Amino acid sequence: LKLASVSTIHFHISKLKEGGYLGKTENKARAISVASKEPMVKIPLLGVIAAGEPIEAIRQNEFIAFPKAKLPSNGNLYALRVVGSSMIDENINDGDVVLVKQQDVAENGERVVALIDNHEATLKKFYKEMGHIRLQPANKTFEPIIIRKDRDIKIQGVVIDVIKNEEELQAEKITITKEVRKERKLPLNKIILGDVVQELRKLPDESCDVVIIDPPYNIGKDFGNNIDKRELGEYVEWCKSWINESIRILKPNGTMFIYGFSEILAYLSVEIPINKRWLIWHYTNKNVASLNFWQRSHEAIICAWKDKPVFNRDEVREPYTDGFLNGAAGKIRKGTPGRFSSSGLETVYKAHDGGALPRDVIKVPALAGGAGMIERWFLCKTCDSVCEPRQLKNHDGHEIMKHPTQKPFELSKKLIKSAMPKKDGVVLVPFVGTGSECAAAKELGQSYIGFEINPDYVRLAEKMVGDKKSVAKLF
User: Fold this and answer.
1) By mean pLDDT, which of 137-146, 159-168, 421-430 is the weakest?
2) Element (H, E) at 7
3) Are the C-beta atoms of 315 and 417 separated by less than 8 Å?
């Protein structure tokens, strides 16, 4: 082997022994042997943890196998996959898995899993200081998180080991398996309070006809219980989890719609492994003002499908333009070269009774100003009651809560009508908000399944959906 010295051999043998690859009996000849396969212990992999800005605590039913000899003799253990880069100076990188010993106390300088305000989890170094707790990143580009007495923090465990990224996991033959309990029966016409990924995992494969997804856009909106501004990598990783689950749940002839700003959806589009096109929702009544750049007058919608999707073109036809009705409709192009059809006859332009074929630019007013007041429902935090716009005058001076990004009812109806089956359709709404998509599904005679993590929005949505009546099916 051309090794420089016996001490070098001793060093490598010692390292192999420490790693569990060799067995060696001290002070005995020919006492080196290949270590037998050591027993493995199944550790629950509960989801992801942010090494960056705090993100929602996400729990998943997965497990990793870990060598028993490397584990402490007592205590409950769990694992979390790291997303983000705020702990790189502690050699904890994006994609690594941290092994955590569950406990509710920590010493200064320990690496902890902390739950902030009962729903935001983060991985940082812990320091208890005068009048506050400091959660310190191990990356100079990140600011510490200061938790004062008016905020809630719970220590959920201390990091005892780090398993490097996926390539090293495979080299160590650590396997990941899923244990997901699927619903035997779809929870139809229910709005379920819970985490989107955890609830999506419970739904069976290819069980929903239409999936309408209106996620947080990662632009800093206040949704009442979470931070809508994460590192881009963290946000995309989180989005991939619900995108993949939604695709699994989508029927072969179903359609999935995802709202967003085009600059955000561009990152998500490349993560969608099925057919897709872009639609545009054009606000016809407002622009998002900007003095420094182009004013925003639209949002993008990704329209995705697996095989040949249901498309009810006659249900979503649009009004003809005045130019067509007053000009080309019903007329024959006379003597124009190249206007003949394959039959040799001139093209006759006929108006359809239902209107023009639908275009990929959908013109619907946004819920802005007085127009927005008509559709919105509100939660009075002072009275702890849900109210309609006409009832707001009875709550003057009260603390009123509304959803910041509620979509128009007309827009929700159009998307569902375009893709719903003739009967027994199921519309899945992973981010319910105030429930306009669920209400539209109900009015169109379709079943719906909705998930929402904010209990206040669940109350609003249930009231809004309960106010809608199902009408006769369109077909």
Assistant:
1) 159-168
2) helix 6-18
3) yes
pLDDT digits (tens, 9 = 90+) for 61-72: 578 887 787 788
Sheet of 275-282: strand order equals: 190-193, 447-452, 426-429, 208-213, 250-260, 298-305, 275-282, 361-363
The pair phi, psi for residue 204, each rounded to 5°, is -70, 160
Q: If DSSP codes are grouped into helix, strand and coil, which group holds residue 190?
A: strand
- C-alpha distances (whole Å) from 74 to each of 68, 71, 103, 133, 159 are 12, 8, 12, 28, 15
Domains and CATH numbers, the chain: 40-177 (2.10.109.10), 190-318+358-467 (3.40.50.150), 319-356 (no CATH)
Structure confidence at residue 158 (pLDDT): 95
How do residues 154-179 score in pLDDT, each as one tens digit?
999 999 999 887 544 443 444 444 44
DSSP count for the chain of H helices, then E strands: 10, 24
Cα 4–6–11 angle (5° rounding)? 95
Backbone dihedral region of 445: left (phi > 0), alpha (psi from -120 to 50 degrees) or beta?
Answer: left
pLDDT in the model for residue 54: 46
Per the CB < 8 A criterion, the answer to whether 160 and 209 are in contact is no
218-252: pLDDT as tens digits? 875 554 545 556 778 888 888 999 999 999 999 99
The beta strand positions in 145-291, using DSSP E, are: 145-147, 153-163, 176-178, 190-193, 208-213, 250-260, 275-282
Q: Tokens representing 219? A: 């632009």
DSSP-derived pairing of the beta strands 40-50 and 77-83: parallel
How far is residue 280's CA from residue 352's CA, in Å, rounded to a whole number? Answer: 24
pLDDT at 279 over 80: yes
Q: What is the 3-state secondary structure (H, E, C) of 108-121?
A: CCCEEEEEECCCEE
CA distances from 295 to 75, 160, 283, 287 (A): 56, 50, 12, 6
Q: What are the C-alpha distances in Å from 256 to residues 64, 178, 204, 262? A: 32, 25, 16, 17
Catalytic residues: 86, 124
Query: Residue 92 is inside which H or E element, if any?
Result: none
